[in-house]
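Q: Here's a chain of 486 amino acids. Please give me its 3D structure as C-alpha cells.
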Amino acid sequence: MTSRKHIHLIGICGTAMASLAGMLQAQGHRVTGSDTAAYPPMSTLLTSLGIPILEPYCEENLSPAPDLVLVGNAISRGNPELEVVLDRRIPMASMAAILHDEFLRHREALVVAGTHGKTTTTSMLAWMYEVAARENPALAPSFLIGGVAENFGTSFRVVPTRPFILEGDEYDTAFFDKGPKFLHYFPDSAILTHVEFDHADIYADLAAVKTAFKRLVNLVPRRGRIVAYDGSENVTECVANSFCKVERYGFASTSHWQLRDLRHDGGTSRWTLYRGGERFAELTLPMAGEHNALNASAAAALAAGEGLSAEAIEEAVRTFRSVKRRLEIRAEVAGVTVIDDFAHHPTAIRETLRALRESYPHRRLWAILEPRSNTLRRNVFELALVDSLSLADRVVIAGVFKSENIPAVDRLTPENIVAKLQLRKVNARTLPDADAILASIVPELAPGDIVAILSNGAFGSIYEKLPAALAGSGALSLTAGGQLSL
C-alpha cells in the first residue's frame, strides 16, 4: 500500500490487531477500529495513539466506506460490520496477511512460537537486539509482541533496519482463513518453546496442534535455525524433520544450550548458560521462575546465533523489565499485594503460582481465577487445572465467562474444580462474578497476603475494584503500579 488509505479494523482491541493499527498509522494511513468491551492494556495503547475505538459494532462505523477492512480472528459471520463488508464487497484482509505483505517481506523475520512463553521470550529477544544496537545500529529491531513490553513501553515498533522480531500465534487467522497466523510469517529463524494441547475451540486434539507447529517448522529455510526446548517430547517430534539446523536448549546434558546452576534469590534468577559444552554467559534475570530462565535462554540462543555478543545478551537479561499483565503488581494496600497475570492455560497458571511461591515463600497466596480463555472454559483441562491451583493457599473461581457459548457437555464446571481442591485440603470456593468475589474475600484479606488475579480479560474490573475496596475498608495507604520482580 504505497498511498495513504483509510483502514478500518474490526476487533481492534485484540493484542495483535491494536499493535498492527499503530504500525499502519505510523506508515501514514488513517486508521479506525471497532470493538466491544475495550479494556487495557490495548485500549490504553490505542487511546495514546489517538486511534478511535468505535463501540459497539454497527453499520454506521463503516460510513463512509474505508479503503480496506482488516477482520480480527474473533470476528465471525453475523457481526454487523462484517455483514456490511461482504454485502458491499469492501476489500478485506486478515491481520497476518497484511503484516507479512506490508512489514515482513523485505526483512529478516525472527519468529517466537510455542504454547507458552511466547510473549515474554519475544520481548526478551527484542530487548537483546535493542541493547546490541547501541554498538551496531543496524541491529535495532522492529517488533510485534503480544503484550506491552515494559522496556519499550509499547507492543510494536517499525524501524528501517532488517531484523523484525515477532510473536508467532498458533491461533487461527480469520473466519475465512482457519490456518494459524504464524504460517503467514515465513520465518528466517524461529524459537519453539513448548507444544501442548491448547485452543480447544479450534484444535480437535494434541495431534492437530502438533501438525500446526510441524508446518511452521517446514517453512524455515535451510539457511535458518530453530532453537527448540529440550524438555518436551512434543517439541522433539515437531522439529524432527526440519530442513534447517536445530539447536536444543534446556537442562539436558546433551543440549547445545544448557542451563547450569540455576538458583533463585527472591525475585532474581541466576545461572550459567553453556554453548556446545563451553561457558557462554553468566545470566542474572530480575524475575523468578524456572520458566523465565528458560525463556531468557531461548532468546539468548537465537540472538547469539545471529551474531549478538555475550556481553550485550548479559546486559539485556540483567535489565529486562517484563511485560504488562505478566505478574504485574497492580496495587499494594496495607500489606496486601494485588497481582495481575494473563492466565490462559493450566500450565501457565502452574508456573505463575510456582514463581510466586519462590518469591514469597512465607506469605499466604490467593489465586482468583476467571475461566475466560477458550481453553479454560472447557472441561478438558479440569484435572490439570486442579493440579495448578493446588499450589495456592486460597482459591476462588468465578463463573465461566460467556458460558452459554460453550456446549454443556464441554463446559468447565467450577464446582467440580472446587470439590477436588477441597479433597486436597485447599481452601476453595466458587462465586459468580467479580463483585461477589470482592464481597467475600475483602474481609478475609490480611497484611502479607499475595492476591494473584488470573484472567486474560477485564474480569469485571476487579483489578481496579479490589484495591479500591481494600483502601475503603480501612487501609492506611494505596501504592499503585510497578512490576513484580518475577
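Q: Can you summarize the key feature?
A: Confidence is low (pLDDT under 50) at residues 474-486.
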